[in-house]
Every structure is written in C-alpha cells, then in structure tokens.
Amino acid sequence: MISLIPMSPEQFERFEQWLIKDFAEDKIKAGAWTAEEALQRSQESIRKFIPLGLTTPDAYLYAIVLSEDSKELHIGNLWFNITQHTWGAEAFLLEITIFEQYRGKGYGKQTMAVLDEKARRAGASRIGLHVFGHNERALHLYKSAGYAVTDIQMSKEL
Q1: Distance (Å, rounded) from C-alpha 65 to C-alpha 78?
Q2: CB–CB of 2/114 below 8 Å?
Q3: Which residues of the chain register pLDDT less than 70?
Q4: What is the model's pLDDT at position 156?
Q5: pLDDT of the residue at 12
Q6: What residues form the membrane-spanning segments (predicted)?
Q7: Euclidean distance between CA atoms 150 and 93, whole angstroms
Q8: What is the rounded distance in angstroms from the CA atom of residue 106 to the CA atom of residue 139?
C-alpha cells in the first residue's frame, strides 16, 4: 500500500539538493538552459515555489512510503502546490519521483491515485502538471492516470 507522509526536515534537505540538480539536468536536456547557468537557475526556480521550505504555505511535500510485510519503505518523493484561480483551486504537481529500484512495479500509478485524494482534501478541484518531452516514462504514467494534454510546446534544432 502506498501512503504520502509529510517529509521530515532531513528528507526535505536531501530532496531539495537532489531536485536542484535533477531539474537543471532536465532543462539542459530540453535545450532551455546552458550547463553553465543551469544549477543557479534551477535553485532560483525551486526556491521561488518553496521559499520557506517545508513551512511554505500551500506547498505539500511528501515522502512516498510503501507499506509491505509490516515494513515501511521510503520509495520516492512527491511535491505539489495549491494555487487559486478564478475557476477554483488547482494542485500543481511539481515533482514525483519513484526511486530507480522501485520503478516498473506500478507504484507510480498507485501514488497518482493517492495524490488525487490528497489534492481533494487540500481543496483542489483540478491537478495540473508539466512534463518534459523527453520523459516518456512520465508521459505514459500521466496518460494512464487520466491526464489529458492541455498544451504542447515544440522546437527544432537548426
């Protein structure tokens, strides 16, 4: 069974360090940032959305926990923010990661179902997200969880 448990300060510190590096790498792969600027821009972007870390209002940061055979395993992380719009509240999924050794076992899809309930309880009537075009695994997960494409941005190298 999958649960979303609020991150501890130690988990958050590790998560934030990993996220800054991972987001920078994704932006480089996508051709949006150069390697020279990526880490700084990544750090600035992430801190914009969680300036107070775990105590940032409307930010929900969770450890993804698998309960199995009376053991609890930290198998990934999830982060969403709630934003208000004229039509209502939206939970925007900023990060979901299932650690490599736990991938391909259906835990991502189970986590997305638990996310639905957490977002509802936080007052959201919709969940939005962004996915990098090169992240085919995530694209498949989101489509299988019922997400529809709302916008596509494309580019071509010359």
Answers
A1: 10
A2: yes
A3: 154-157
A4: 59
A5: 98
A6: none
A7: 15
A8: 14
Work out the number of other CB atoms within 10 angstroms of the CB of residue 119: 21
Q: What is the pLDDT of residue 59?
A: 98
Token pair 């395993």 is found at 73
CA angle 45, 125, 103 (to 5 degrees): 60
Q: Which two tokens stand for residue 61?
A: 């940061």
Closest CA to 82 of 118, 131, 132, 42: 118
Domains of the chain: 2-144 (3.40.630.30)
The per-residue DSSP string of 81-150 comes to: EEEEETTEEEEEEEEEEE-GGGTTSSHHHHHHHHHHHHHHHTT-SEEEE---TT-HHHHHHHHHTT----
pLDDT digit string (tens) for 77-114?
Answer: 999 999 999 989 999 999 999 999 999 999 999 999 99
Residue 131, helix vs strand vs coil: coil
Q: What is the DSSP letter of 114?
A: H
Lateral strand order in the sheet of 126-129: 2-6, 59-68, 71-85, 88-98, 126-129
pTM equals 0.86
Q: Are 15 and 61 in contact (CB under 8 A)?
A: yes
CA–CA separation, 125 and 50 (whole Å): 22
